[in-house]
Specification:
Distance between the termini: 32 Å
Oligomer: single chain
Order of helices and strands: EEHHHHH
Strand order of the largest sheet: 1-2
Number of helices: 5
Shape: elongated
């Protein structure tokens, strides 16, 4: 997923979301999937650009701990695995959850979505992953204190 700056414009009671693209899109591909290159649908989500939260860091490392307990894989290995998976998914964007991070809440949510999904797609049933996956993506609400497996 790519991130671009957008501007909301109101004109004659209609609202338009205008996005400046970094490069020209592949118009042939757009026409193939939508039937037209002049008008097509896009999925968009409002990015939360605030700095990643300590609660997100705690949840991520609690998930790593659950996976370690279940599998025996070292948490450093798992952290690097999920960071590389995130980097691959975001076309090279790096993430950090340190106290001095430049990563955003949306970045951390993407990392948590991926690591929770990975945990739940295997046989590791972490209560932390399950409780995270049950909440709305727009609200970070989870039970970090849960330590039992389902």
């Amino acid at each position: 997923m790519q991130q671009s700056r957008a501007q909301l414009i109101e004109q004659d009671g209609q609202y338009y979301l205008v996005t400046r693209l970094d490069k020209k899109p592949n118009l042939d591909h757009i026409e193939t999937v939508s039937g037209s290159h002049s008008q097509f649908y896009v999925d968009w989500e409002l990015a939360d650009t605030r700095k990643a939260r300590p609660q997100q860091r705690r949840l991520f490392f609690a998930l790593l701990s659950d996976i370690y307990t279940w599998s025996g894989m070292p948490t450093d290995f798992l952290k690097n695995l999920f960071y590389l998976q995130y980097e691959s998914y975001t076309f090279g964007k790096q993430i950090s959850l340190s106290g001095t991070t430049e990563s955003s809440v949306s970045d951390a949510n993407q990392l948590l979505d991926q690591s929770s999904t990975s945990c739940l797609s295997g046989t590791c049933r972490s209560r932390k992953a399950i409780s995270y996956c049950r909440v709305s993506k727009s609200i970070i609400c989870f039970n970090v204190a849960a330590t039992e497996f389902a």
